[in-house]
Amino acid sequence: MSWPSQMRPEAQRVALQAKGFLSLEEGVKLLELACSASRLAAVLEIGSYCGKSALYLGEGCRLAGRHVVFSIDHHRGSEEQQPGQRYFDPDVYDAPSHSFDTLRHFVRNIQAAGLTDWVVPLVGTSSCLARHWPGAELGLVFIDGGHSDSDVRADFEGWSRLVVKGGYLCFHDIYPNPADGGQAPYRVFQNARAQRQWAFVGLFGSLGVLQRK
Fold first, then answer.
1. Which of 197, 156, 158 is nearest to 174 (CA)?
2. Which of 79, 101, 108, 171 has its Cβ near the most Cβ atoms within 10 Å?
3. DSSP secondary-structure letter at 18?
4. Which helix (H) or strand (E) is 203 found in, with range?
5. Closest Cα to residue 168, out of 20, 29, 73, 56?
6. Whole-angstrom distance, CA of residue 116 vs CA of residue 61
7. Planar angle of CA 32, 186, 102, nearest 5 degrees
8. How far is Cα 110 from Cα 51, in angstroms, rounded to an integer?
């Protein structure tokens, strides 16, 4: 998998260095989808972390030149990223205040990639923002927040209804084989796939993609 020719070198460099759990294949696919979907309406992601996925989504929006990406995260880390857990990273943990903070890393990466006009951080919980969202439709929703059944289901129920016809619903960490990873995103993805309003586009690495019919 190579970098898309349209992606600027500075954005490539920052995306490569940014902390995150997105593969190059998955990132490039998000860029392609965002470039198409943002011609329809704004793009939204749930789960920013340090901005790796937002860089690809934002670059796709920049290439299309129409709508921005809204990036939701409370930036306090998920359950599995807390001290003593599997994905704990001391670089994003402030020991004196005993707090996890990825917002400064996110902002720095977006600025370094020259995407401040295309990526809009929304600091808060997905559930709160979904309740108060003004109802504007979305061209793409990327779900990569909390990975419990209740979290993934709530993100799906809160945001998928806003995807326009022809728009995309994407889930990260889709592992058909339980030995490869947690199953909550896969279960919700499969449930969505079975609904008649969604067409299966494909699985790209662990990125599952559906399209609104």
1. 156
2. 171
3. S
4. strand 198-204
5. 29
6. 12
7. 65
8. 7
CATH topology of domain 9-73+104-212: Rossmann fold (3.40.50)
Domain positions in the chain: 9-73+104-212
The pLDDT assigned to 191 comes to: 97
- The pLDDT value given to residue 150: 94
Whose structure tokens read 């709530």?
A: 154
The set of long-range contacts for 8-16, using a CB threshold of 8 Å and a minimum separation of 24, is 8/59, 8/113, 8/114, 10/112, 10/113, 10/114, 11/55, 11/59, 11/113, 11/114, 11/115, 14/55, 14/109, 14/112, 14/113, 15/52, 15/55, 15/56, 15/113
The C-alpha atoms of residue 44 and residue 163 are separated, in whole angstroms, by: 10
pTM tops 0.90, yes or no: yes
Question: Which candidate in 74, 75, 147, 172 is catalytic?
Answer: 147
147 noted as active-site residue? yes
Mean pLDDT by 10 residues, the chain (213 residues): 78 94 95 98 96 98 97 81 64 72 93 98 97 95 94 97 98 94 94 97 98 98
Close Cβ partners of 62 (under 8 Å, ≥ 6 residues apart): 115, 117, 118
Residues 6+ apart with CB under 8 A from 150: none
Distance set, CA 154 to CA 17, 34, 90, 129 (Å): 31, 23, 29, 12
Residues 68 and 90: their CA atoms lie apart, in Å, by 31
Tokens 């198409």 appear where? 36
Residue with tokens 């929304």: 122
